[in-house]
Write a structure and sequence with these properties.
about 140 residues, two-stranded antiparallel sheet, five-stranded antiparallel beta sheet
Length: about 140
């Protein structure tokens, strides 16, 4: 939906906290699971990434596993795309992911600024403002 320009600029710029661990072994095409000795768990980086990047990692996931807390309840997930499998494994908390998905679900573009591009023969959106949709009552 982001690429189709149907979501607001706020969603396009939405960032999610992630933890990042680099592999210490080559992640080949036969090793799609998480082994304790495959990633540097002692050197975890924390960063914020665009929600649309996490969506891309999920769509192209090479490694995907749920993370469980001490009570065996899902608390997050591990993901790495086929492109990034030898660069990083990302951990995303379930709460942060649900907040992002909730923002996407409730996103309403209420103001739009667009210009027509003759070369593309299409409109280019300059501003897509998020707001609350007004519902007219009969």
């Amino acid at each position: 939906m982001i690429e189709s320009q149907k979501l607001s600029d706020d969603i396009d710029q939405y960032k999610i906290n992630v933890s990042k661990n680099e592999p210490i072994k080559h992640i080949d095409r036969l090793h799609r699971w998480l082994d304790e000795d495959e990633y540097n768990w002692d050197n975890t980086a924390h960063e914020k990434v665009y929600g649309k990047n996490v969506c891309n990692w999920l769509i192209h996931s090479y490694v995907f596993r749920f993370q469980f807390d001490d009570n065996c309840v899902v608390s997050g997930f591990f993901v790495s795309s086929d492109y990034d499998r030898n660069k990083a494994l990302y951990t995303i908390s379930l709460a942060d992911w649900i907040n992002f998905v909730d923002s996407v679900i409730t996103d309403d573009v209420v103001e739009l600024v667009a210009t027509f591009d003759d070369k593309r023969s299409d409109y280019i959106y300059r501003i897509k403002k998020r707001g609350k949709r007004r519902v007219l009552k009969p």
